[in-house]
Design brief:
Two copies of one chain form a homodimer. Chain A is mainly alpha-helical. The radius of gyration of chain A is 23 Å and the shape is elongated. Chain A has five helices and two strands, in the order ααββααα.
Chain lengths: 124, 124
DNA sequence: TGCTAGCTTGACCTTAACGTAAACGATAAT
DNA sequence: ATTATCGTTTACGTTAAGGTCAAGCTAGCA
Protein backbone atom coordinates (compact mmCIF):
# COMPACT_ATOMS: atom_id res chain seq x y z
CA UNK A 1 0.00 0.00 0.00
CA UNK A 2 2.91 2.28 0.77
CA UNK A 3 4.23 2.17 -2.78
CA UNK A 4 0.74 2.37 -4.16
CA UNK A 5 0.15 5.62 -2.28
CA UNK A 6 3.63 7.04 -2.48
CA UNK A 7 4.29 7.12 1.23
CA UNK A 8 6.69 5.30 3.53
CA UNK A 9 5.69 2.22 5.47
CA UNK A 10 6.90 3.96 8.59
CA UNK A 11 4.38 6.73 8.01
CA UNK A 12 1.56 4.27 7.58
CA UNK A 13 2.51 2.46 10.75
CA UNK A 14 2.80 5.81 12.47
CA UNK A 15 -0.74 6.73 11.44
CA UNK A 16 -1.89 3.42 12.82
CA UNK A 17 -0.05 4.11 16.07
CA UNK A 18 -2.01 7.34 16.30
CA UNK A 19 -5.27 5.53 15.73
CA UNK A 20 -5.96 6.81 12.23
CA UNK A 21 -5.84 3.36 10.70
CA UNK A 22 -6.56 -0.08 12.11
CA UNK A 23 -6.01 -2.77 9.49
CA UNK A 24 -6.95 -6.38 10.00
CA UNK A 25 -4.18 -8.84 10.79
CA UNK A 26 -3.40 -12.09 9.05
CA UNK A 27 -2.95 -15.32 10.93
CA UNK A 28 0.74 -14.63 11.33
CA UNK A 29 0.20 -11.06 12.44
CA UNK A 30 0.75 -9.26 9.15
CA UNK A 31 -1.29 -6.22 8.31
CA UNK A 32 -4.02 -6.51 5.70
CA UNK A 33 -5.27 -3.28 4.24
CA UNK A 34 -8.78 -3.24 2.87
CA UNK A 35 -10.45 -0.71 0.64
CA UNK A 36 -11.67 1.29 3.61
CA UNK A 37 -8.12 1.62 4.88
CA UNK A 38 -7.05 2.92 1.51
CA UNK A 39 -9.82 5.48 1.52
CA UNK A 40 -8.86 6.65 4.96
CA UNK A 41 -5.21 6.92 4.00
CA UNK A 42 -6.11 8.99 0.96
CA UNK A 43 -8.09 11.32 3.15
CA UNK A 44 -5.17 11.63 5.55
CA UNK A 45 -2.74 12.40 2.76
CA UNK A 46 -5.04 14.97 1.27
CA UNK A 47 -5.43 16.57 4.66
CA UNK A 48 -1.70 16.70 5.14
CA UNK A 49 -1.14 18.13 1.71
CA UNK A 50 -2.64 21.38 2.78
CA UNK A 51 -1.40 21.62 6.27
CA UNK A 52 -3.75 19.74 8.53
CA UNK A 53 -2.13 18.02 11.47
CA UNK A 54 -2.66 14.32 11.96
CA UNK A 55 -4.84 15.19 14.90
CA UNK A 56 -7.12 17.28 12.71
CA UNK A 57 -7.19 14.49 10.14
CA UNK A 58 -8.20 12.13 12.92
CA UNK A 59 -11.02 14.47 13.86
CA UNK A 60 -12.31 14.49 10.32
CA UNK A 61 -12.01 10.73 10.04
CA UNK A 62 -13.85 10.47 13.31
CA UNK A 63 -16.64 12.62 11.95
CA UNK A 64 -16.95 10.54 8.84
CA UNK A 65 -16.93 7.30 10.80
CA UNK A 66 -19.47 7.99 13.44
CA UNK A 67 -22.96 6.64 13.18
CA UNK A 68 -24.53 7.74 16.39
CA UNK A 69 -28.18 7.27 17.10
CA UNK A 70 -28.34 10.18 19.48
CA UNK A 71 -29.55 13.42 18.02
CA UNK A 72 -27.34 15.36 20.43
CA UNK A 73 -24.28 13.58 19.16
CA UNK A 74 -25.19 14.40 15.62
CA UNK A 75 -25.71 18.02 16.53
CA UNK A 76 -22.34 18.16 18.22
CA UNK A 77 -20.67 16.63 15.23
CA UNK A 78 -22.49 19.02 12.94
CA UNK A 79 -21.33 22.08 14.80
CA UNK A 80 -17.77 20.80 14.77
CA UNK A 81 -18.08 20.03 11.11
CA UNK A 82 -19.23 23.55 10.47
CA UNK A 83 -16.16 24.91 12.21
CA UNK A 84 -14.04 22.89 9.87
CA UNK A 85 -16.06 24.07 6.91
CA UNK A 86 -15.56 27.68 7.88
CA UNK A 87 -11.85 27.03 8.22
CA UNK A 88 -11.79 25.42 4.80
CA UNK A 89 -13.55 28.39 3.31
CA UNK A 90 -10.98 30.75 4.82
CA UNK A 91 -8.20 28.65 3.44
CA UNK A 92 -9.83 28.74 0.06
CA UNK A 93 -9.93 32.51 0.15
CA UNK A 94 -6.30 32.68 1.23
CA UNK A 95 -5.26 30.31 -1.45
CA UNK A 96 -7.03 32.32 -4.09
CA UNK A 97 -5.43 35.52 -2.84
CA UNK A 98 -2.02 33.92 -2.95
CA UNK A 99 -2.68 32.65 -6.41
CA UNK A 100 -3.65 36.11 -7.60
CA UNK A 101 -0.52 37.60 -6.07
CA UNK A 102 1.72 35.09 -7.72
CA UNK A 103 0.03 35.74 -11.03
CA UNK A 104 0.68 39.43 -10.55
CA UNK A 105 4.36 38.88 -9.88
CA UNK A 106 4.52 36.61 -12.88
CA UNK A 107 3.02 39.26 -15.10
CA UNK A 108 5.48 41.88 -13.91
CA UNK A 109 8.37 39.58 -14.56
CA UNK A 110 7.20 38.87 -18.06
CA UNK A 111 6.89 42.59 -18.67
CA UNK A 112 10.38 43.22 -17.35
CA UNK A 113 11.70 40.43 -19.48
CA UNK A 114 10.09 41.85 -22.60
CA UNK A 115 11.56 45.21 -21.75
CA UNK A 116 15.03 43.71 -21.46
CA UNK A 117 14.70 41.87 -24.74
CA UNK A 118 13.52 45.01 -26.48
CA UNK A 119 16.51 46.91 -25.11
CA UNK A 120 18.84 44.21 -26.38
CA UNK A 121 17.29 44.34 -29.82
CA UNK A 122 17.68 48.05 -29.96
CA UNK A 123 21.34 47.80 -29.04
CA UNK A 124 22.04 45.73 -32.16
CA UNK B 1 3.42 43.79 15.94
CA UNK B 2 2.99 40.39 17.54
CA UNK B 3 -0.34 41.27 19.11
CA UNK B 4 -1.41 43.09 16.00
CA UNK B 5 -0.87 39.97 13.94
CA UNK B 6 -1.88 37.42 16.53
CA UNK B 7 1.45 35.67 16.72
CA UNK B 8 4.06 35.29 19.45
CA UNK B 9 7.14 37.51 19.64
CA UNK B 10 9.19 34.37 19.72
CA UNK B 11 7.83 33.38 16.34
CA UNK B 12 8.62 36.76 14.88
CA UNK B 13 12.15 36.66 16.20
CA UNK B 14 12.42 33.13 14.89
CA UNK B 15 11.42 34.25 11.43
CA UNK B 16 14.04 36.94 11.64
CA UNK B 17 16.63 34.35 12.70
CA UNK B 18 15.75 32.43 9.56
CA UNK B 19 16.19 35.51 7.43
CA UNK B 20 12.55 36.06 6.59
CA UNK B 21 12.45 39.44 8.30
CA UNK B 22 15.11 42.03 8.95
CA UNK B 23 13.68 44.99 10.80
CA UNK B 24 15.60 48.18 11.45
CA UNK B 25 16.96 48.73 14.93
CA UNK B 26 16.47 51.74 17.15
CA UNK B 27 19.31 53.58 18.79
CA UNK B 28 19.13 51.28 21.78
CA UNK B 29 18.93 48.14 19.67
CA UNK B 30 15.18 47.62 19.67
CA UNK B 31 13.45 46.31 16.61
CA UNK B 32 11.42 48.68 14.50
CA UNK B 33 8.95 47.11 12.14
CA UNK B 34 7.98 49.09 9.09
CA UNK B 35 5.10 48.54 6.72
CA UNK B 36 7.17 46.29 4.52
CA UNK B 37 7.92 44.04 7.48
CA UNK B 38 4.24 43.79 8.21
CA UNK B 39 3.51 42.85 4.64
CA UNK B 40 6.16 40.17 4.71
CA UNK B 41 4.87 38.79 7.98
CA UNK B 42 1.37 38.62 6.58
CA UNK B 43 2.64 36.67 3.63
CA UNK B 44 4.50 34.30 5.94
CA UNK B 45 1.42 33.70 8.06
CA UNK B 46 -0.75 33.12 5.06
CA UNK B 47 1.80 30.69 3.72
CA UNK B 48 1.87 28.83 7.00
CA UNK B 49 -1.88 28.71 7.22
CA UNK B 50 -2.02 26.28 4.39
CA UNK B 51 0.99 24.23 5.12
CA UNK B 52 4.00 25.88 3.56
CA UNK B 53 7.21 25.49 5.50
CA UNK B 54 9.16 28.56 6.51
CA UNK B 55 11.69 27.65 3.89
CA UNK B 56 9.06 27.72 1.18
CA UNK B 57 7.79 31.02 2.51
CA UNK B 58 11.32 32.31 2.30
CA UNK B 59 11.50 31.22 -1.31
CA UNK B 60 8.35 33.09 -2.14
CA UNK B 61 9.52 36.17 -0.29
CA UNK B 62 12.76 35.91 -2.18
CA UNK B 63 10.88 35.81 -5.45
CA UNK B 64 8.86 38.86 -4.55
CA UNK B 65 11.92 40.76 -3.40
CA UNK B 66 14.26 40.20 -6.24
CA UNK B 67 14.83 42.86 -8.80
CA UNK B 68 17.48 41.35 -10.98
CA UNK B 69 18.65 42.93 -14.16
CA UNK B 70 19.65 39.67 -15.70
CA UNK B 71 17.12 38.09 -17.99
CA UNK B 72 18.36 34.63 -17.04
CA UNK B 73 17.67 35.30 -13.40
CA UNK B 74 14.17 36.43 -14.24
CA UNK B 75 13.61 33.33 -16.28
CA UNK B 76 14.81 31.13 -13.47
CA UNK B 77 12.54 32.88 -11.03
CA UNK B 78 9.67 32.58 -13.45
CA UNK B 79 10.02 28.86 -13.85
CA UNK B 80 10.21 28.41 -10.12
CA UNK B 81 7.20 30.63 -9.71
CA UNK B 82 5.31 28.49 -12.16
CA UNK B 83 6.08 25.40 -10.13
CA UNK B 84 4.59 27.09 -7.14
CA UNK B 85 1.58 28.15 -9.16
CA UNK B 86 0.94 24.61 -10.30
CA UNK B 87 1.22 23.47 -6.72
CA UNK B 88 -1.24 26.12 -5.65
CA UNK B 89 -3.68 25.01 -8.28
CA UNK B 90 -3.46 21.43 -7.10
CA UNK B 91 -4.07 22.53 -3.56
CA UNK B 92 -7.05 24.50 -4.69
CA UNK B 93 -8.52 21.41 -6.30
CA UNK B 94 -7.88 19.35 -3.19
CA UNK B 95 -9.40 21.94 -1.00
CA UNK B 96 -12.51 22.12 -3.12
CA UNK B 97 -12.83 18.34 -3.09
CA UNK B 98 -12.51 18.28 0.66
CA UNK B 99 -15.06 21.01 0.95
CA UNK B 100 -17.51 19.10 -1.17
CA UNK B 101 -17.00 15.96 0.89
CA UNK B 102 -17.64 17.79 4.11
CA UNK B 103 -20.77 19.32 2.67
CA UNK B 104 -21.93 15.85 1.72
CA UNK B 105 -21.41 14.53 5.23
CA UNK B 106 -23.19 17.56 6.60
CA UNK B 107 -26.18 16.93 4.39
CA UNK B 108 -26.41 13.32 5.44
CA UNK B 109 -26.27 14.28 9.07
CA UNK B 110 -29.06 16.78 8.65
CA UNK B 111 -31.14 14.14 6.95
CA UNK B 112 -30.51 11.66 9.76
CA UNK B 113 -31.38 14.31 12.27
CA UNK B 114 -34.66 15.10 10.54
CA UNK B 115 -35.44 11.42 10.47
CA UNK B 116 -34.83 11.14 14.20
CA UNK B 117 -37.01 14.15 14.95
CA UNK B 118 -39.79 12.77 12.78
CA UNK B 119 -39.62 9.46 14.62
CA UNK B 120 -39.85 11.24 17.93
CA UNK B 121 -42.87 13.23 16.81
CA UNK B 122 -44.62 10.12 15.72
CA UNK B 123 -43.99 8.49 19.06
CA UNK B 124 -46.02 11.15 20.82
C1' DT C 1 13.29 -28.34 3.97
C1' DG C 2 15.83 -24.39 3.37
C1' DC C 3 16.41 -19.88 1.29
C1' DT C 4 15.16 -15.29 0.38
C1' DA C 5 12.38 -11.42 0.53
C1' DG C 6 9.40 -8.92 3.06
C1' DC C 7 6.94 -7.92 7.60
C1' DT C 8 6.92 -6.63 12.82
C1' DT C 9 8.27 -4.55 16.90
C1' DG C 10 11.25 -1.71 19.60
C1' DA C 11 14.49 1.63 20.36
C1' DC C 12 16.78 5.53 19.40
C1' DC C 13 17.71 9.72 16.15
C1' DT C 14 16.33 13.92 13.54
C1' DT C 15 14.24 18.27 12.01
C1' DA C 16 11.10 22.20 12.05
C1' DA C 17 8.94 25.42 14.70
C1' DC C 18 8.38 27.16 18.24
C1' DG C 19 7.88 27.64 24.15
C1' DT C 20 10.04 28.97 28.38
C1' DA C 21 13.22 30.75 31.63
C1' DA C 22 17.12 33.69 33.08
C1' DA C 23 19.83 37.68 33.11
C1' DC C 24 20.40 42.02 31.50
C1' DG C 25 19.49 46.60 28.99
C1' DA C 26 16.04 50.22 27.25
C1' DT C 27 11.78 53.15 27.73
C1' DA C 28 7.83 55.06 29.81
C1' DA C 29 5.25 56.65 33.78
C1' DT C 30 5.10 58.72 38.11
C1' DA D 1 15.24 59.73 39.45
C1' DT D 2 13.31 55.55 40.12
C1' DT D 3 10.42 52.01 39.44
C1' DA D 4 7.66 49.16 36.35
C1' DT D 5 7.25 47.50 32.07
C1' DC D 6 8.88 46.24 28.11
C1' DG D 7 12.61 44.33 24.72
C1' DT D 8 17.06 41.49 23.84
C1' DT D 9 19.96 37.55 23.83
C1' DT D 10 21.20 32.96 25.09
C1' DA D 11 20.23 28.57 26.11
C1' DC D 12 17.69 24.71 26.91
C1' DG D 13 13.04 22.17 26.48
C1' DT D 14 9.16 20.35 23.70
C1' DT D 15 6.07 18.45 20.15
C1' DA D 16 4.81 16.53 15.70
C1' DA D 17 6.06 13.64 12.13
C1' DG D 18 8.56 10.79 10.72
C1' DG D 19 13.79 8.22 9.56
C1' DT D 20 16.89 4.50 10.62
C1' DC D 21 18.63 0.36 12.40
C1' DA D 22 18.62 -4.17 14.62
C1' DA D 23 16.74 -8.63 15.73
C1' DG D 24 13.48 -11.75 15.13
C1' DC D 25 9.08 -13.54 12.30
C1' DT D 26 6.56 -15.07 8.20
C1' DA D 27 5.43 -16.41 3.56
C1' DG D 28 6.15 -18.01 -0.84
C1' DC D 29 9.10 -20.73 -3.74
C1' DA D 30 12.51 -24.15 -5.25
Amino acid sequence: MAQEMGVSTRSIRFYEEKGLLSPQRSNGGQRLYCKRDRTRLKLILRGKRFGLSLEQCADILGLAALEPDEASQIKKALSYGQEILVDLEHRLQDLKAMHREMKGVEKKMYARLAQLEAGRDQAR
